[in-house]
Amino acid sequence: MGSCFNNSSLACSHLLASDFSRPLKLPKILHLDALEPYMSQRTLEMHWGKHHRGYVDCLNKQLENNNVLYGYTMDELVKATYNNGNPLPEFNNAAQVWNHDFFWESMQPDGGKTPEGGVLQKIEKDFGSFANFKEKFVNAALSVFGSGWIWLVLKTKEKRLEVVKTSNAVTPLVWGDIPIISLDMWEHAYYLDYKNDRGKYVNIFMNHLVSWNAAKARMARAEAFVNLGEPKIPVA
Ligand SMILES: [Fe+2]
User: Boundaries of each Manganese/iron superoxide dismutase C-terminal domain copy (predicted)?
Assistant: First the structure.
């Protein structure tokens, strides 16, 4: 059976050979120079090639003989290992794998500029203006103490967009909120390109890297789960 990693009867208790895509693979970044000159190839080689790969490798090692966390999607794994605020040993690696997958997709070549359509309307509604949002995002990023992340999320209960910051590996996913954009505020994300000038890094992200295309797609998907307006289909 392909899913058996050790000889214990518990680990061999699955009927199917499916391994639910384990071991996890590091997703490929096709062009490591795609974000030049704003995020250098050298940074991508180190950040994606070493740090992100390290989280994937460590998580695979932790999951190798774990029969309890078998069969989870990445989202479920992050939530399950967060364990309602009492994280299991796998949480940091699982969350950092998720966070980095999400971060790479939060950027694009020739990014920045301004969002369009539904994302822009929702930003204007919830922050007053795009300029207000941008100021709030940048200020929040600069106030992250130590390592962490900054996020634009759709709060599912409040049904509004908010800027939130998290420490270390924590992701808003664990509170049931829907991330729209993220920015890695760990030193390994910016030090090679910007040394300790966090302000420059954050502003470059906002003006040249952030992918509003990704945000637009994520908002559209989020709206399938969070009703931001009146239901259009009458209930029978
Ligand atoms: Fe990172």
Answer: 116-218
- As a residue count, the chain comes to 236
Determine the distance separating the centroid of ligand 1 and the alpha carbon of 232, expressed in angstroms: 41
Q: How far is CA 111 from CA 8, 35, 91, 181, 209, in A?
A: 50, 9, 31, 13, 4
* CA distance readout (Å), 232 to 95, 148, 171, 227, 228: 36, 39, 32, 10, 11
pLDDT digits (tens, 9 = 90+) for 183-234: 999 999 999 999 999 999 999 999 999 999 999 999 999 988 888 876 677 7
pTM of the model: 0.90
**Distance (Å) from CA 189 to ligand 1 centroid:** 5
CATH number of 38-225: 3.55.40.20
Distance of CA 186 from the midpoint of ligand 1 (Å): 6
Contacts by 171-175, CB closer than 8 A, 24 or more apart: 171/78, 171/95, 171/98, 171/99, 171/102, 173/75, 173/78, 173/79, 173/98, 174/78, 174/79, 174/82, 174/95
As a whole number of angstroms, the distance between CA 104 and CA 167 comes to 19
CA-CA distance, 24 to 26, in Å (whole number)?
Answer: 7
**160-167 and 178-184 strand pairing:** unpaired
